[in-house]
Design brief:
Number of domains: 2
Shape: globular
Strand content: 15-25%
Number of strands: 13
Helix content: 10-25%
């Protein structure tokens, strides 16, 4: 077992210890200061932050690599969110190998994608978003090393109350449950040379490949969904140096013919002969 995997296990154990202490304190009326309950929680975050600084930061010699050029994972008109072109780590953390990760949402035309609402509707169906069901394409020739699509696609979290629920409750529970509940249904491709591509939040039941399959660049492998820790249907894409997001480090990427779109930048990913139009 790698040191980074062990750190993740200790981190989750300490978080569960915090939950257990709170429950025990309330139900058993243990006679100690309530703030002692938060000691394992604070320790868990201290361990995780130290681990990320030790081996996951982009300025670490072990993590530093030139951007790997690959094909775009989608086709059509899309918009970028949480882009590494604006900051790294792009999602505010090096956890799960997502230092250089990017989120993309379909924008087939202006106004086609529902916007954020403060109060109502609390949530929207996945079918309201043009990204839902869009084909996801292999960015290079490779081998499928992870493929799972059994989790449900949940409603959007695009209102103030739904977003608060996601950040305070749902995200914490998913983090405790493990990485697969954070990234949802997903595919990991081994592209060779120590590079792996992760497609997260895949649509339930949409996989067209299985573990061990060889894929060609541009081949459809799944469809965009809304599983895992998400606010709306979108693709979370990243390159990393191993197949397990719990232990992998992020690798910078660039999409052939596009580069790395900035936050809210609209980009057009053209179809090739091997891609669906």
């Amino acid at each position: 077992m790698s040191a980074r995997k062990l750190v993740k296990i200790v981190y989750r154990f300490l978080q569960l210890t915090f939950v257990g202490l709170v429950i025990a304190h309330v139900s058993l009326d243990w006679g100690y200061p309530w703030w002692w309950n938060f000691l394992p929680l604070a320790l868990s975050y201290a361990i995780l932050i130290a681990a990320h600084r030790w081996g996951g930061a982009p300025d670490s010699p072990r993590a530093a690599r030139e951007p790997v050029e690959v094909d775009p994972p989608v086709t059509g008109r899309w918009s970028a969110l949480n882009s590494p072109a604006d900051r790294t780590p792009s999602h505010g953390t090096h956890a799960y190998g997502q230092t250089y990760a990017i989120d993309v949402v379909a924008e087939p035309e202006p106004g086609a994608r529902p916007g954020f609402s403060r109060l109502w509707p609390l949530a929207r169906r996945t079918s309201a978003f043009p990204a839902f069901g869009a084909p996801l394409l292999a960015v290079a020739d490779g081998t499928v090393v992870r493929a799972t699509d059994g989790q449900r696609d949940h409603l959007s979290r695009t209102s103030l109350f739904a977003l608060l629920y996601l950040m305070v409750v749902e995200a914490s529970v998913r983090d405790l449950a493990g990485v697969k509940w954070v990234i949802g249904n997903h595919v990991v491709l081994d592209l060779g040379d120590g590079t792996h591509a992760l497609y997260a939040h895949v649509q339930r039941g949409s996989l067209t490949v299985r573990e061990g399959d060889r894929v060609r660049a541009g081949q459809p492998i799944a469809r965009c969904g809304n599983s895992g820790n998400t606010t709306e249907p979108h693709l979370h894409f990243q390159l990393m140096d191993g197949p397990d997001p719990d232990t992998a480090r992020g690798i910078p990427f660039t999409w052939r013919g596009i580069g790395v779109p900035r936050n809210h930048e609209i980009f057009e990913a053209p179809a090739t002969a091997s891609q669906p139009a």
